[in-house]
Amino acid sequence: MNGVSSLNIAEFEARYPDVFNPPALKRFLPLLIGAATILYLVYCWWFFSIGTVLATGQWQRAEIYARDWVSYAIRSTVRMSPEGTTISYPRFSELGDNPKPDWVVQNGRDVTITFGTGKSLRINGQRVIAMRGGEELTVLIEPDGAKPQGRLPTWATLKEDQVTVNFGFAGTADIIPERVVISRRFLGWANFVFDTASPFWNRSAGEVASMIFSGERIRPEISNAALAFDNIWYNSSWQHGDVWTKLLQTIVMAFVGTLLATLISLPLAFIAARNITPNFFANQMTKRFFDFLRSVDMLIWALFFTRAFGPGPLAGISAIFFTDTGTLGKVYSETLENIDDKQREGVKSVGASPMNVQRYGVIPQVLPVFASQALYFWESNTRSATIIGAVGAGGIGLKLWEAMRTNTNWHNVAYMVLLILAVVFIFDSISNALRSRLMGKQQ
Amino acid sequence: MLWKDKPLSRVNSTLLSPDGILIERHWQELAGRRRAYSWLIGIGLLIAVSGSLWFANDSNAGKFFDRIPHFFDFAGDLVPRDGWEVWRALFDLPSPYFDGSLKFDYPEGRVYLFGPLYMPEYFYKMLQTLNIAIIATLTGAFFGFLLCFLAARNLVKSKMIRFVARRYMEILRAFPEIVIAGFFAAILSLGPIPAMFAVGIHTIGALGKLFFEVVENADMKADEGLRAVGANWFERVGFGIVPQVMPNFMSYALLRLEINVRASTIIGAVGGGGIGEELRLSIGRGHQAKTLAIIVLLLATIIAVDQFSAWLRRRLVGNQAFAFGGKQS
């Protein structure tokens, strides 16, 4: 058989009219939906004035903030006065009280700052020489401003009396009359383990270990190991202790909230299921109660309980508990309504009590599904708990939100995000592993 | 004494054959071990829960037993002067108790549309939240749709591409929404657009995962037929896979819309604008009638969205998409 004759085509068309000549509405439905979507998007563009907001957004900040996630900058000021050149650092510098960084070399009035290979700044009295990638720029500092000599390279800008030299990621230097302000950026997190106030600060892991195990007691009242732990726990810029406590609160909120919700919704679901409790009134009451708990959003519960209990994880637990009793109850009662009735009939036929009918006729069928759903909720609540924390319901959410609002602590944000991601991934895999064992390979 | 010689409990062993005794003993042993495990798990959970509750109570600002007698004080604070106040607050009608304070200044929030025709403040804010949720769902579904085919085992042979696509979606899904919102709020200033980004980005990951699972379960016969007549990859996906997965995709997107309405309310409360912010402010300031009005409106909207979505999903795919009860996160 090769090809279809025109007769056949006509016959096919006659046989399947809805395929070849669908009604106009059906034919244009996708097109209509598409057009409606585009119209809606245009409306939203206008409603939220998205264009204006995006255009006025400070996108250059995005780069700066993103960079702050994984790096830190050290600021220092070089002052050139007739008496001599001095280098100063801010009071709470990442380099401690008496910084001697190896990227600054001072030799009398001659200061050299290295920004990486081929990038450096040399300050000699009132003359500053910047080098980057083979190019060289000399700036003379005069009383009325910094004067670049010759043509400005692309990496330097002149603004009024100030020349800014940009060394890319490695940092910047502002050359201003009398002084040069330097910002030198390094990849990584500064003082992540010990802060500058700690006696263990700026020592290698081996040194710290030998101090802990065999060194003299630094403070006579406690051992060095306890001191080291204390210093890490109360690290002033990373606040490990606080972060980990708050993270534990978040985990606890999700765990206890889900568990309590499971325990309460289980008996209620038996009342709500019409095949198990053949009482229309009781079914409807329980189901509407579930709907109420579910529809009053987790946010409303969270705000409500924050008012009732004060900010903290109790509010979060209660919010998750209330919302999820509703959702789990609905899911459970739907599962119960779909069970196989043969087992219940079998158990009933041998004269078992109503309690035993549920225990041996229903529970074995639904328990794996119930447990699997509870695990699923636990997993997703770990994520929700982070968000409701930000309205005061306890956990790491608020800390995260506060760190973000300062706009300078993005490295702390990165730290907390990493911890949250780790927790979410660990719980995801635990819950997935348990669920696939419970449900067998069928899914 | 060997385990074989232990007397059987609850069974008269003289009535059983040697084989029967062996089976009975084996069964009892298994049942005993099972019971022991159940007890262990039960006790472990009990310890974990009581420890957790103690910890939660300890680190809470107010203590459970100190606060519980005052639990309904707050509910008492919510009672407005009279029942009509709630409706006045909801529809921005002037209040007879107006004394110049923020508490009773309902008409202030009116959003005028044409002439004297106005939209009550909370309806406007609710519309904002709903629009955030819808836009986030639309964009999330769009990008999730583009990504999901790359992650499906039956469509992409290269393990590398699949791995990248799946991990990418996983990260989008697990990244805390609040951080995305905070990051964009720092760039675009607080408002609904950071909330849109946050909810939308999360939706890409969440829907992408559900979508590619649907694609992997698709019937490959249509695809085979298209391959036989020499269709390229895009044609195979477009004509073989998309028509059969579309109803399920739509149903999942609707499910996601229900979740996103709630999510955008919450994000709103931490600075994303919309009804969530109004609710948080009004609870914090102790405005009874306004709080109740917002709760009534929010409740009505969420129920309406849930019912609409359930109805549409039932039309699209029958009952099969209800397996997990509408909670995906």
UniProtKB/TrEMBL annotation, chain A:
GO terms for cellular component: plasma membrane. It is a multi-pass membrane protein. InterPro entries: MetI-like, MetI-like_sf, PhnE/PtxC. It is found in: Cell membrane. Its main location: membrane. The chain crosses the membrane at residues 28-48, 251-277, 298-322, 413-434. GO terms for molecular function: ABC-type phosphonate transporter activity. Keywords: Membrane, Transmembrane, Transmembrane helix, Transport. This is Phosphonate ABC transporter, permease protein PhnE. Pfam families: BPD_transp_1. Residues 247-431 form the ABC transmembrane type-1 domain. Belongs to the binding-protein-dependent transport system permease family.
From TrEMBL, chain B:
Keywords: Cell membrane, Membrane, Transmembrane, Transmembrane helix, Transport. It comes from the Bacteria. CDD domains: TM_PBP2 (cd06261). Its main location: membrane. It is a multi-pass membrane protein. One of its GO terms (cellular component) is plasma membrane. Residues 126-309 form the ABC transmembrane type-1 domain. The chain crosses the membrane at residues 36-56, 129-150, 171-189, 292-312. GO terms for molecular function: ABC-type phosphonate transporter activity. It is found in: Cell membrane. Belongs to the binding-protein-dependent transport system permease family. PANTHER family: ABC TRANSPORT SYSTEM PERMEASE PROTEIN P69, PHOSPHONATES TRANSPORT SYSTEM PERMEASE PROTEIN. This is Phosphonate ABC transporter, permease protein PhnE. It comes from Phyllobacterium endophyticum.
